[in-house]
């Protein structure tokens, strides 16, 4: 088991390095950098000025070197100005020149750079926004997982029954409703002045300070709905398969009641497959978060991603990517470990 | 719940009819089926797949699913009609009064629940006892089914046990509440022969010990003979003959029963002088049953106007005890007439050596744990110094149980794997280390294979003809498409399939027909050596004989060398010229069929012979039950591979068996045994199978 | 003129869709008549769920095709009519010209364009891109997934690692990185397209060669012909004058794809391929243990013949079902792109962009955002139901 986790961790780090490098490469392409230069300097810079600006800020080094510096395994870029003042990646604008600057200042050192849009350190932004999204995700999980599992188990328990058909149709419909459709429909029905129900609020901006039933329900349900269908269908398929298994017949012919067959014999076996699915759906739940936060104007992590990407905020986008890749990989690791735990057949060794 | 007290028959089935309802039609699965089981009695239910024998069992359990329904007759358990029980009463009967054991032990145990919990559940539900008492009971029963270290077993998960141990657990589970009736549905089909023998013995002993009545469902007449008191033969949804074992086996009164016995190889049969008689035609589909007698169209005694009208009723056979048969012509048929003189085949002349193996070795390296990888690598010795020769027109049988290395050997011969060491000589050319991609067309087409599973052997999405033509294309037979098509039709003729089959999809064919196509495909390039990997073991008994005969016939005309891989010694004895017995990658005995089947034996051959059930009441067998299970090839025992289970080990001085792999000892011309036993002891061995004097 | 009542609107909508109804009825009549001879497609008409799904899908397919020929739509999807801004459904046009449809049946959007016509035009974008992108994703997934599953070992480890790499990327992030004008300028999406569009050619080439290599007389001309045409299509597809990839002269370049569409297409294929890869790989690993594969091996068939002619046809059931689901998923992805205003031009009538525009005034005006949202919902629902029906019918035999 220890060996297994170590190997998974190794693969995970390799994946993280590859992914961050890809993001780094794509965000540091020439057109992006030129745009950055013009944004930071002024919009009417000549090409020459752009190049010199970029050179002065260390952007003209080769990509692997820049990546190394960003990561913090290569010494940070420095240059000496004509005035003799030394500036560089690791030296803040107003740093005390008598203090010897650090050599390394990358992600590994906790130095995530400065956001050009928010004018704040990336780390602070990410932590704050992640906290807001955390509440959203927690609520989504609390709604989505139990209802999806109940839906799936009820449908799969008696395959082909009327209950199954009804529940299956519900879950198929919900998988056909992406967040931007369900969100729009929910807002139209429950929050618009045109329909006039006005049960909930159409934005969740106020939920950033104070979560209430009125301002948080719609975003949570919007994200959860798409997932519910997917997980419920997985659970149903898995449950239906388990219910036809020979050992279920054994249990039935042992005289076990139907309730106990479902709860004691079928459930654990049926939950192995959906569990991995739930965990592996994280990259795509992140999707839902981005759409929903944009739609409901909830300034969390997803909203930040859109802001960073839309405004060419390279450092912030990198930071956001690192965190989301990290979240995804951790959930994958949990999924692997959980799978081993749930399935006794591979617990040995 | 207290058990019901009842004196009469445990189970009375009277004129039972069961149907399944699909979207299109009603499919009658069982019709007019009657049987009684007395206390302590064991009734065997025999028939081919699809004859409805399992449906009867499920009917007794009232577990026919959504589509199944009892449409006529009654099932009485201890005098009470089981179909009139409330769901609660039914639950009390299940597991408590009637218990069931199935074919696939692994599938019948919940993979995510510990064995102990699964066992304890039974008395806890039915007798309301607490966990502690139930645990004690479980310990007792697990000890009764002769499993070592019961406490550890109760604490383990099903996948941690071997197949034989799992089946013992399933039996233990069935006995937990000491039921009055035990239903066994092909309980040993998934097990190896020697393990099967042990399980059968166990079931018999426990049945006596617990005083349980049994309903034993099997397709194997030999097994029924060994376990049951009475037998009921089923054909196409009906019981055709019912009586005591002795009556039915020796005084059979139904043409189907007779045909069944004539199509299985008994010790007296021989492929040339007394060939098997296959039952002509095919099993009728449930909705295509003929009028009158279901067996009519395939029956040798069929008379128009008598057998094809109305419903044929069961008739009492006078003189015998409770012996009935469903035949209109019982009295007219001479049941003792000798088998109509089958065409006596001339034995083909055995020719030159075609294939020669010299010290063939095949080792695999596997990671110690497949899932987690890493760690130490282990060497699996799948084949250990295999040496033999095979001649033209000869049938060499390779016998052994799972894990003996026979499939690996086939792979190496075919070139799907290359040998680790040693040589394979085909006509004197070494091919052992040439993988199949590097072999020339002539070599590839002359070594071909017939596969075991008929449902898997043909590509389901290509027509039968297309698949044979593809083989012809690859073997460069025929100059153009039309020549190949012509040749394909000839091949279909050869395997006795109608030419229309060329354009059918495999799913439209029955198992036997698919197997014939597989044979035609193997012979497409004029194969000289054909490896037949259990070609008939997945087929029904009556079809087995026909396919076996077909193989023999083609072999005679084509002078093929047949390497017949099998675990079924009856069929091996019937058709092979020489036999090679394998155990854990080693050849433990090789010789002509007569030499191998008579003493002196290798101790493993002896046990194997004793384990094979034989459907003949006149045969007396020495009972040798092997202890334990076949060791894993990953972790073979030291010294002689068979030493862990050998009954003769104490006859060899100073633990030689534990230390050294025995040498090949030549006992007679062409007869070799890999054993430490002294020649003197070997020659003292008695034959396992004796035909009792009549 | 008076605004139309809701009943009038519905009646007029139904009338406007007449060609679609005719086509649907024709399709169903013909299919049900010959359903016994149509294999799996015919069996679909035994399942209610499958038929409902098929009807929904075909409704949008026909609507898109007729819409593309300007048959159903009432107005030009890009035309702005003064005074129609955010007008509710059924509002009459002030000063309608001769021969012009007198109403905005589903109202006008914030730029005073006809919502109904935009919705129909939007379906054409989806119907063009989604199935084709899914086909390409399948080509990539199959061509890589089969050898990964069949050979296993190092190749499998490497390919699976790459697939997992892409899967671990949040899709939105990927889109934001790939589908920006700056990245399009660098030509990266075109290069990616150039790599991915190679797969169909490789697939067909290997498919035919493995089947006919025993008969060179048939094989050689066949391969030259088929691959020649495909290669020309390929070059025309990737080569675009004025971009970084301008490899063949203008006169040979059969057609040009607007850069925005190409990028959207490439990124959607890129996102879908790894999942298809995983499915195909799993199926190949399962089917390769069958005896008919062993039989093919023992008669010396090449690995690609076994993969493409022995394994792939027998994996078709799950793959067809997944294809339907995946077209639905691709539709959702296209909507996502439109929703964030990525790739497609801002005035594009596709559903995602329209929803994005409409959502801004959602609390006051429902009609610009709801029709495209419901359209997308019904198409994806149709595809999912179709997949479910197919799965059910293919299991039953």
Please state the average pLDDT score of chain B.
Answer: 83
Poorly predicted parts of chain A = none
CATH superfamily descriptor of the largest domain in chain A: MetI-like
> DSSP helix count of chain B?
22
Distance between the termini of chain B: 51 Å
Which structural category fits the helices and strands of chain B? alpha/beta
Structure annotation, total helices of chain A: 13
What would the average pLDDT of chain A be, to the nearest integer? 84
- The shape of chain B is globular
What's the CATH first level of the largest domain in chain B? Alpha Beta
Estimated helix fraction of chain A: 55-70%
Unreliable runs of chain B: 369-374
Write out the CATH superfamily name of the largest domain in chain B.
Answer: P-loop containing nucleotide triphosphate hydrolases
Number of beta-strand segments of chain B: 26
Q: Could you say how many structural domains of chain B there are in total?
A: 3
Biggest interface pair, counts: A-C, 55 and 47 residues
What distinguishing features does this structure have?
heterotrimer, A: 349 residues, mainly alpha, MetI-like fold, two-stranded antiparallel sheet, 13 helices, C: mainly alpha, 68% helix, globular
The gist of it:
Chain A is an all-alpha fold and about 350 residues long.
Question: Would you write up a description of this structure?
Answer:
The complex is a heterotrimer of chains A (349), B (694) and C (397). By secondary structure, chain A is mainly alpha-helical. Helices cover 68% and strands 2% of the residues of chain A. In chain A, strands 1-2 form a two-stranded antiparallel sheet. In chain A, strand 1 and strand 2 form a beta hairpin. Chain B is globular and about 75 Å long. Chain B starts with 10 loop residues before the first strand and ends with a strand. Chain C has 397 residues and is mainly alpha-helical. In chain C, helix 5 (115-151) runs parallel beside helix 12 (259-287), helix 12 (259-287) packs antiparallel against helix 15 (316-339) and helix 13 (291-298) runs antiparallel to helix 14 (303-311). Chain C is globular. The model of chain C has no long low-confidence stretch (mean pLDDT 87). At the A-C interface, helix 1, helix 2, helix 6, helix 7 and helix 11 of A face helix 6, helix 7, helix 8, helix 15 and helix 16 of C.
